[in-house]
Amino acid sequence: MKFVILVGKALTLGAWLLMFFNLVQPFEGDIAIILYILLAVTVLMHLFQVAIFHTLFKRYLSLKASDYLQVFAFGAFSLLTYRQKVLDQDPSQQG
Description:
This protein is an all-alpha fold. It is built from four helices and no strands. It is elongated and about 55 Å long.
């Protein structure tokens, strides 16, 4: 599972870099427009995941700004990492 999370984070980082590169040096044609839309959707989706993260994990872990930044940057892959931390703390929650 750790390998899948690591690969997912790497792919997510690549997607972020591609979308931000498009802001600096736009691609030709419709690809640029698609990447602008994808960036907006990604930002909204990751903000929603940060809200979910805060709601679900604040009572189980002491959260720092870097934790929120991790979830914003890597989305569901970071959520899986923090889920595993909670399960490692309290084995009775595994199910």
